[in-house]
Amino acid sequence: MRRSLAGVLVAVALTTACGSATPAEPASPEPAPTSQSSPSPTSPVTRPREVRLEAEQPCLLLTDAQRAELLVEGEGKPLPIKTYETTGCNWTSANASYTLVPVTAEGIEAWTGNERAARSEVTDPVRGFPAVTVTIPSDTASCDVMVDTAAGQYLVASFTAKRGSPDLAKPCDGARRLAEAVMLNLVG
Asked: Could you give the dihedral angle defined by the CA atoms of residues 171, 176, 179 and 183, in that order, rounded to the nearest 10 degrees?
């Protein structure tokens, strides 16, 4: 299974379970305040515009040429994500797994307050949009790049390198490649 996305969802569950040792599905994700347009109060980057994700179908957000460039095999497979009450998409290649999740249940601010078990840090913008890299120290093969697309929404681009993959040393590069490709299609 996609360890990065699973790890992020476990981190969400752990933080919402009030310290419980057993991961639990949050009762209902609470949207973060939407007045902030950047990933952190200290970041000078703001969104160039809002890109709403409610109507987007994640498996259609990569072109055939982009899938070939990422070396993914065929069409993406829809992936229900109960935590965020949404559907993501997963693509696989010989060396990696890519997952894309449009989150409309909370803003990217949920990842910048250091309230979650995963480690997040503000990174370079993706196509001009604020971004946060999220990693889990115990999962060095995976990385997520969260892109702040609109108030109360963000896009998760997840990458997990398979054992023996040349990308194993830099999984955040894979997540960023996915984020860049998808944002190119969303913003033109």
From this structure: -170
Q: Which residues contact 176 (CB under 8 A, 6 or more apart)?
A: 123, 126, 145, 157
CA neighbor of 132 nearest in space, from 142, 140, 144:
144
Q: 41, 113 in Cβ contact below 8 A? A: no
* Domain range list for the chain: 3-26+51-187
**Rounded to a whole number, what is the largest CA-CA distance in the chain?**
45
Predicted structure pTM score: 0.77
pLDDT averaged over consecutive 10-residue blocks of the chain (188 residues)?
43 32 27 36 71 94 95 92 92 94 92 80 94 92 95 95 82 96 94
Angstrom distance (rounded) from CA 178 to CA 181 = 5
